[in-house]
Amino acid sequence: MGVVEDPTTTYFVYPGLSVVYTKQGSTVKKNVYASGPLVGRVVGSTTSYYHKGALGSTRAVTDSAGAIAGATQYKPFGIEYGTTRSGASKLLAKMHDADK
To answer: Where do the domains of the chain lie?
Structure first.
């Protein structure tokens, strides 16, 4: 599937309901899933790992060295607090929205 916005075309590969591959210009993103949930993403030569809480929300994103790139905590009903982010780790709680 492809989407054209302005002069850039973005291509998405869906083997089911989840995006596994995105190409926008020369930037390629590969998502890694383990029995359903997203556990990692590779963008170029950079790998990020997603760590889930007991209810399935992404609680932390780490890089390949294990350093925390972002973390968040949740109050009841999903309200975020204590969120820290660095770089491109904006997809903590809303990881699927970041690809749209």
So the answer is: 2-95
